[in-house]
Amino acid sequence: MSVQKRIYNTCKRCGEKFLTRKKINGKIRRFYARKYCLKCVPFNGYINQYKDKKPSTRICKNCGKEFKSLVIINGKKIELYLRKNCLKCVSLGESAQKCFSRDGEKVKCEVCNKTYIYKRGTHNCNTFRCCSCKNIERQRKAKIKCVEYKGGKCINCGFNKYMSALVFHHVNPKNKEFRIAKWRIISWNRIKKELNKCILLCANCHAGIHAGHIKLKR
What we know:
about 220 residues, two-stranded antiparallel ribbon
């Protein structure tokens, strides 16, 4: 399997993106491992010659305005060469994550269009999906994983058209420790042990077995 290489790298000095492949003097040069753009360190130039040539200004990621990369605060020189936001947007010593946090803000779910209050630090929701939609998506992915582990189709009739119509049937109910639906709080290794006690059936075959109309093929 081929690995797709990056088209752009980000310069560690000025923060601008540059191509990882470029034609120089009629030859294609590869810069996949290069850390600095050609403006900061020209081709075949030694990094030590350009160490003192730091950019005098930077562009704020939040407001888009230029700010000085070297300032004097309380008589002390403070370098801001690696800073992404200006001091107006993010004060010195403050965290950008806290400054731009949407904690307590009303946001709209992109899936169901439901409006909810985002609370930072909770694992169930984020700024673009509500808790319900995120849980549904997690359950869907978990069921796909379990169904694929058990062969992906009903062992009695071979049905595999709808994922929601496939169920896990314990061959011996006495050996049942928990429901497969409790995957959220149980490790995958424990779920696999429980799946080994089950067979995969469609809803019709599962209902027929419990009603005594269908006998499993041994």
